[in-house]
Amino acid sequence: MLTHDHHGLRRLLDRFTAWEHRLALRFNQPNSRRLWSAFFGGVSRLGDGLFWYLLMAGLLLFDGTAALKPVVVMILTGVACTLTYRWIKQTTTRQRPCQRYPGIRLTTLPLDLYSFPSGHTLHAVAFTVVASVYYPLLTPWLAAFALLVAASRLILGLHYLSDVLVGALIGATIALAGLYLASLF
């Protein structure tokens, strides 16, 4: 009986993997157009950290000492996100779609070897959640940028949909935990 259950689970995982592969190919199609590739490559590079560092600097510049707490919460959230996603990536060692499937067009080099979860998406969601709590007027802009970062990871062939979705979930969870801890002080 156990062997039968094991085979059923294996078949389910194989079907899920095939479905994600088809999605990865579909998401990667716009990357064959130079303009889309350049646009999403630029978004991805901004999502490496530059956008968020500029946001924190801008908050400090325009809001002065009132921005200290939000920026410190963002920094600590970012550290927690980095430690979390690096540990998960080293534990799961899931290959990126561009490494596994020759049909995926790669135009931007990945920052690390593994796919799961998407660190870019994880950080984008975490920083968006934290900054939006303190600066609600920024929410539409930050949410739009976070969505573009998530899309860039799919279009550039660097992540599967599950990498992006789980990255977003982890990022939101870490951000909410950080905001809760910050509320205690």
Task: Give an account of the 3D structure.
The chain has helices spanning 2-28, 34-63, 68-92, 97-100, 119-134, 139-155, 161-183. Helix 2 packs antiparallel against helix 3. The protein is globular. The chain has seven helices and no strands. The mean pLDDT is 93. It starts with a helix and ends with a helix. The protein has a single domain, classed as Vanadium-containing Chloroperoxidase, domain 2. The protein is mainly α and 185 residues long.
Q: Give, in order, the helices and strands.
A: HHHHHHH
Radius of gyration: 18 Å
Number of domains: 1
CATH architecture: Orthogonal Bundle
Please report which band the strand proportion falls in: under 5%, 5-15%, 15-25%, 25-35%, 35-45% or over 45%: under 5%
* Low-pLDDT runs: none
Structural class, from secondary structure content?
mainly alpha
CATH domain fold name = Vanadium-containing Chloroperoxidase, domain 2
Q: Just give the CATH class.
A: Mainly Alpha
Specify the overall morphology: globular
Count of β-strands = 0
What is the typical, i.e. mean, pLDDT? 93
Give the end-to-end Cα distance, rounded to a whole number of Å. 54 Å
